[in-house]
Amino acid sequence: MKEIDWANLSFGYMKTDYNVRINFRNGKWGELEVSSEEHLTLHMAATCLHYGQEAFEGLKAFRGKDGKVRIFRLEENAARLQSTCQGILMAELSTDRFKEAILKVVKLNERFIPPYESGASLYIRPLLIGTSAQVGVHPATEYMFVVFVSPVGPYFKGGFSTNPYVIIREFDRAAPHGTGTYKIGGNYAASLRANKKAHDLGYSCEFYLDAKEKKYIDECGAANFFGIKDNTYITPLSSSILPSITNKSLMQLAEDMGMKVERRPVPEEELATFEEAGACGTAAVISPIQRIDDLEKDKSYVISKDGKPGPICTKLYNKLRDIQYGDAPDTHGWVTIVE
Ligand SMILES: Cc1ncc(COP(=O)(O)O)c(C=O)c1O
């Protein structure tokens, strides 16, 4: 086996030893199957290929200083996948079956879990797709649940740092009461042009405003947004953003730190008032924001005056990472230890 260069992993796909699968046929989920085949055999008329019956999740396993492997908020990802399945009429997988599959695939690929010292982790990617053949627009009768894993590098290679972001007004990711709250492939297809534009302009990522009024902050790329001011953690309440599990965890940690937490619409102009702000998600935990530009309005909201992450973002980031790696007690029961 070729040695893995743990220190230089990127956020990409690496072939591992096994993936796991469960098929839904005749109205029920079958047995868990273990496979070392990277490809799927699909019917060309499968609903996932034509009508977007495709859901996915993203979570991570971390190896601690004590050698133990911890999976972060497994049950929350199971619940979000169930919500997504309800949203696009797919067969729901129970939390127990989700857990069974995740634990199995992590154990089978144990040698791919990065060592504690590397700051890297094992990314876990579950997906659930409609597989039965159909030409009319209807939900499938058969589904497949697949989970693969890939070791991924630490998000901040040169250390925790701030980045510039840009509001893209030209393209919307999701409509109010559309599919934005579900983790389905279609939302990501809809985000590609805005994301490319932001990158082409030299920004770290794109910001979306609410699609109806273009007045309120929705989210940024594949992350939720939060702002900090007056000892308060403020994050958008919107019917078109993904309920981020990282954001939910940070709200709890902010509360534990004695901060107030507000979930409410956040008007764009309010960006000028934040002492700190961040993008949050599984990939980065927190990506602190240096500034957010609105090119069409010729505005630049500079959040970090000295270009460094603020003290509250840093504290929240360290608190969450410490729980994930087992360096701090798991007081909220967020971690599943792989036995
Ligand atoms: C659109 C979008 N928003 C937010 C998030 C952050 O969610 P989480 O913290 O559960 O990773 C993600 C990533 O999953 C995402 O794709």
Automatic annotation (TrEMBL):
Catalytic activity: L-leucine + 2-oxoglutarate = 4-methyl-2-oxopentanoate + L-glutamate; L-valine + 2-oxoglutarate = 3-methyl-2-oxobutanoate + L-glutamate; L-isoleucine + 2-oxoglutarate = (S)-3-methyl-2-oxopentanoate + L-glutamate
GO biological process: isoleucine biosynthetic process; L-leucine biosynthetic process; L-valine biosynthetic process
Keyword Amino-acid biosynthesis carried by entry: yes
Residues bearing the modification N6-(pyridoxal phosphate)lysine: K183
Keyword Transferase included in the entry's annotation: yes
Pathway: Amino-acid biosynthesis; L-isoleucine biosynthesis; L-isoleucine from 2-oxobutanoate: step 4/4; Amino-acid biosynthesis; L-leucine biosynthesis; L-leucine from 3-methyl-2-oxobutanoate: step 4/4; Amino-acid biosynthesis; L-valine biosynthesis; L-valine from pyruvate: step 4/4
Enzyme class: transferase
Record GO terms (molecular function): branched-chain-amino-acid transaminase activity
Database matches in InterPro entries: Aminotrans_IV (IPR001544), Aminotransferase-like (IPR036038), B_amino_transII (IPR005786), BCAT-like_C (IPR043132), BCAT-like_N (IPR043131), BCAT_family (IPR033939)
EC id: 2.6.1.42
Keywords tagged on the record: Amino-acid biosynthesis, Aminotransferase, Branched-chain amino acid biosynthesis, Pyridoxal phosphate, Transferase
The protein's required cofactors: pyridoxal 5'-phosphate
Matching Pfam families: Aminotran_4
Gene3D superfamilies reported in the protein's UniProt record: 3.30.470.10, D-amino Acid Aminotransferase, subunit A, domain 2 (3.20.10.10)
SUPFAM superfamilies reported for this sequence: D-aminoacid aminotransferase-like PLP-dependent enzymes (SSF56752)
NCBIfam families: ilvE_II, PRK13357.1
Family indicated by similarity: Belongs to the class-IV pyridoxal-phosphate-dependent aminotransferase family.
Annotated function: Acts on leucine, isoleucine and valine.
The protein, known as: Branched-chain-amino-acid aminotransferase
